[in-house]
Amino acid sequence: MLNSKKMRMVLFLILAYIFSLANIAFASDGLPKIKVVTTPDSSRSTEATENAIINDLLKMRNCQVVVAEQIDTDYVLEVSTIDDVKIHEGHYIRDYSKNKEREYDLKNSKNTKDKHSRDKFRDRERNHYYDIWVDEWAEFRMNLNLKLIDSSGNVVWTASDNGLGRDRKTVIDQLTYNTMRSFYNFLPVQGYIIKIDNNKYLTDITSRQNVAVKDQLIVNRTEEVIHPVTGKVIKQINKVAVVEVVEFAGDMVVVSPVSGEIISLGDTVNRPLKNRPNKFLGIFGSDEHVY
Q1: DSSP calls for the chain
Q2: CATH number of 189-271: 1.10.3720.10, 2.40.10.410, 3.30.390.10, 3.10.290.30?
Q3: pLDDT by residue (tens digit) across 187-201?
Q4: What is the pTM (predicted TM-score) of this model?
Q5: Which of 41, 161, 164, 284 has the least CB density, counted as fewest CB within 10 Å?
């Protein structure tokens, strides 16, 4: 019989495989194929971090997540983590006569023998009653490193972040979200202008890539500049216009200009990164990963 943790893992892998197959169905959209791997020297948090990253990649819809060994990939996303746990001990005292808490040094007190003990005593001289307790808590620290490697073995993108907290899951969640937002900026949902009809422009972005009516997209144009000394061709990306999604032609996104210059066939269209939720993982905050 599988325990609840193993059952959740099995269900996650099944869902990841189903999403991967679904992505294959629209691979003609030109989505890059990415496989997530972990380094052998990583910490015990790596598996949970890898699962969180795969889940975010599936949400972003900017790539095709590959889980099968036999499928060729465009990129490999390498995940590495280092973590440690530090135990802290606190000593507290409540003075009932003043109704307030303050730190209290109990190093020489018998109460330190029991980590979670509570003891009441009376100060005969001042006639005050106190409640003393000793507590401890764990502080979890983690460093996350990501490396994107293309099919030629070149490292094309890296990210690193670190965090600490009392809960392992919360720290992993925060670091994953931070680095994946950086990854989306490197590899956003992107398509091309493929048809012009009066003031409307047909793109090859589909509704399955987290795009909805009234979303605003960015139109860019790539120009090649030849370096006068080295002769090297440098690609320069310039923002041309801002457009808004007005409708869908079948499954294709149709946009209309909001501002900017004249749009041409072959211009690229990007969906910009959405704003981070207010107070993400904070008090009364959200833990939703929005891209």
Answers
A1: ---HHHHHHHHHHHHHHHHHHHHHHTGGG-PPEEEEEE-TT--TTHHHHHHHHHHHHHHH-SSEE---TTS--SEEEEEEEEEEEEEEEEEEEEETTTTEEEE---TTSGGGGSTT-EEEEEETTTTEEEEEEEEEEEEEEEEEEEEEEETTS-EEEEEEEEEEES-HHHHHHHHHHHHHHHHHHHS-EEEEEEEEETTEEEEEEETTTT--TT-EEEEEEEEEEE-TTT--EEEEEEEEEEEEEEEEETTEEEEEEEEES---TT-EEEEPPPPPPTTTTSTT-------
A2: 2.40.10.410
A3: 999 999 999 998 999
A4: 0.71
A5: 284
